[in-house]
Amino acid sequence: MSAPLDRADSRVRHDDSLTGALRSFVDRVKSGDLGMLPVAVGLVVISVVFSILNPIFLVPNNLVNLLFDCATVGIISLGIVCVLLVGEIDLSVGSISGFASAMVGVFWVGQGWPVLLAIAAALVMGGAVGWVYAQLFNRLGMPSFVSTLSGLLALLGMQLYILGPTGSINLPYESALVSFGQTLVMPPAVSHGLGLLPGIVMLIAGQRRRLRRGKANLSVPPLGGLVTKAAVLTAALQGAIFYLNLGRGLPWMFGLFVLLVVCLNYGLTRTQWGRSVIAVGGNREAARRAGINVRGIYTSAFVLCGTLSALGGTLAASRLASSSQQAGTGDVNLNAIAAAVIGGTSLFGGRGSAWSALLGIIVIQAISSGLTLLNLSSSLRYMITGAVLAIAVIVDSLARRSRISHGRG
Amino acid sequence: MAQQPILSLRGVSKKFGAVSALTDIELDINPGEVVALVGDNGAGKSTLVKVLAGVHQPTSGVIRYEGREVTMDSPAAAMKLGIATVYQDLALCENLDVVANLFLGHELSPYALDEEAMEARSWTLLQELAARIPSVREPIASLSGGQRQTVAIARSLILNPRIIMLDEPTAALGVAQTAEVLNLIERVRDRGLGVIMISHNMEDVRAVADRIVVLRLGRNNGVFDQTTSHQDLVAAITGATDNAVTRRMEKHQ
């Protein structure tokens, strides 16, 4: 058989071996394609610093609480990833989530609707708000920065309006929704079982890819690397799950978050829609000339962001067992945006992944949890979180500049 | 004539209000032929290309595609007929890799992208064009100007068009890269496609064009071939034997 199609050019170095993979990783980082590196470094630094300051930080139950907290803002951040990828922004995700949480409280507890109907209404509201932003952007050319900023105020007003003078509604403590947000964890057998899945999927998908590449006369990555990766991943996951099970265990709510991340990741990397989203974020005019429905892509991104924000707000209500005037205000907006950026999704569009929401929110919540354990006032927490966000954006901008000068777009 | 032209225009005119951008244009494109469209600024080249690409609709006249009379009311309609256009600014997504750019908008199996088939097809196509692209999994941003032009031309071939239109394909390129793109144009022609090339560079035009169609003030102003002298071409383009270019040349002889 002749050389594989992609190995015919002798000018290109191919990094197939383990050292080769390491070398190409170093090359990528040097040229500004940082990927997950800032998150990994950040998490290690945070863990070391906070566990020195207060050993409780790394206790299993604190980590379980951390995962509960991650899920709500993390799901909002997942929506932010969608709009950032097309090069736009939604500054009103906090207000959407607050309004959604108020809707669930008012309709379910106040009006006596079935809980699922109330949640569905909140999700539809979120999607509708996103649709309106998309229309303002597509038809009137209104920058999303401005339209969502006005949406932030308008939705906050609606939230205060429907909550009425009492300003807060307590959700029934014994309901399924509240226990989902506060106590429901997976039994150890289930969490360990689910922890095996990523490795198995990686093996099957990888092997299928190897066979298909072979059939298409392309170079085939070595089986050993695949097995090693899957084994390392499985061992790490099982270790983490074992540690969490020493405490209360893995929250179902976090499981839902991860499921959404996996779904969005599939959508973004393996479907025509996802390819179009990234193309629109990279070069809108090129996408339009390639026959992509650019307006439709913008609409899908904003609607998805609104819906995910509303879901995040609903889960926040279940986490706090209340719908209040404070829901979705304060640092929710910035945390959601910061998580996406810290995780490696560019503010400039066309670059990022669903995983960035998961990794970024873990960093943000770890900082927040660590600062809470130190009994710092919220004034200091805001300042420190603000500084971390600034650093993340600076890293993003510098990496972007370096990518351009290294010809990696 | 031995073969039927793929595309033929008869009496095509385009008016923008009171301005006649094109008047009674006659043009035939045969398979396996490179036709160069030349003309001064404002001669109507771009308008003609936009009419053929479906961006503008002619005010009057007939466009025949493989003998059938057709109307192209959108760029998509022109693309569907088999007329591909490579614009001057290429319109590639720099953040996507070569494979993703080649198949952008036409990905194989939209709900579970067939990356292997797309990558294999990309390599085959690029090898057929003898293109020198080091890796199809690198983002476009890492490629040189000539390589980007190659990718843009290869992308227009993905849908198996019969005609490909190139707007100033060599304008931004160096000497060696220009030669590579001209070779590429010849290989596209050898695949039996009709090629329409717009250029201001007379050397490039004479190097690859089988016919040179001169437009002047929106009208046909003669059809020439490679043997035509530079002076005659310039005369046809500018509309007079006495013009700034010829005066300059005489002065320097």
- Structural class of chain A comes to mainly alpha
* Helicity level of chain A: over 70%
Mean pLDDT over all positions of chain B:
88
Compute the CA-based radius of gyration of chain A: 22 Å
Characterize the structure shown.
The complex is a heterodimer of chains A (409) and B (253). Chain A is mostly helical and 409 residues long. Helices cover 73% and strands 1% of the residues of chain A. Chain A folds into two domains: 35-183 and 255-408, ABC transporter involved in vitamin B12 uptake, BtuC; 185-250. Chain A is built from 16 helices and two strands. The radius of gyration of chain A is 22 Å and the shape is globular. Chain B is α/β, with parallel strands linked by helices. Helix content of chain B is 35%, strand content 24%. Chain B has nine helices and ten strands. Chain B has helices at residues 45-52, 75-81, 98-102, 115-128, 145-157, 175-190, 202-208, 230-238, 244-252, and strands spanning 7-16, 19-29, 33-38, 60-65, 68-69, 83-86, 163-167, 194-198, 211-216, 219-224. In chain B, strands 6-7-8-3-9-10 form a six-stranded mixed β-sheet, sandwiched between helices. In chain B, strands 2-1-4-5 form a four-stranded antiparallel β-sheet, with helices on one face. In chain B, a hairpin with a 2-residue loop joins β9 (211-216) and β10 (219-224). Chain B is globular and about 60 Å long. The interface between A and B is large, with 39 and 39 residues.
